[in-house]
Amino acid sequence: MWIRTETQADHAAIRDLLGAAFANGPGAGRMEQRIVDALRDDGELTLNLVADIDGRIAGCVVFSPVAIEGASAWYGLGPVAVAPHDQRHGVGSALIRAGLAELADRGAAGCVVLGEPAYYGRFGFRNDGELRYADAPPQYFQSLAFQDAGAKGDVRYHRSFSAH
Q1: Dihedral sign, CA of 20, 87, 54, 80?
Q2: Would you tell me how many other CB atoms lie within 10 Å of the CB of residue 141?
Q3: SS3 of 157, please?
Q4: CA distance 36 to 50
Q5: Contacts made by residues 132-139, CB under 8 angstroms, sequence distance 24+
Q6: Dihedral sign, CA of 48, 49, 55, 58?
Q7: pLDDT digit of tens for each residue in the chain (164 aa)?
Q8: Cβ atoms within 10 Å, residue 26
Q9: CA torsion through residues 70, 164, 14, 124, sign
């Protein structure tokens, strides 16, 4: 498995991957496809790493800027997707670890994620009650500070995350 930054030639495969990975969820992956397309179109897709296995895209992880009053250089993780037949083989974990390392190397202050605490906790994400996202259950909205451990308040993602 080779983890690399997406290229324009990967866009169609990433759309297909998102559709397949989220096929059983609400909207059958269309929401995730719209989010990634809108982030890309608006120049807000900071980092999209893909897992390339023998020339096919087996997974991707997306990072985009989030707004927190009084804080800068914070990013949101998501969506993250792995092809159904490649799930449970460490592809998603490898992508997330590589993406977080890249953000830290770029000088990011921190990263937030809305997701399963048991899963994202293994990467260092925690809910400390200081950052909030809309009406998401607090235990599912977590942060990982690289530099700015003092960020507090409401987090705003790109508009595509709230568009249905």
Answers
A1: positive
A2: 20
A3: coil
A4: 13
A5: 133/157, 134/162
A6: negative
A7: 999 999 999 999 999 999 999 988 878 889 999 999 999 999 999 999 999 999 999 999 999 999 998 888 999 999 999 999 999 999 999 999 999 999 999 999 999 999 999 999 999 999 988 899 988 898 999 999 998 677 899 999 998 888 64
A8: 9
A9: positive
Can you name the residues that pair with 142 across neighbouring β-strands?
A: 113
H-helix or E-strand spanning residue 2: strand 2-5
Bond prior to 117 in cis (omega within 30° of 0): no
Calpha distance 93→97 (Å, rounded)? 6
CA separation, residue 108 to residues 34, 111, 155 (Å): 25, 8, 15
From residue 111, alpha-carbon distances to 14, 16, 87, 137 in Å are: 22, 26, 23, 18
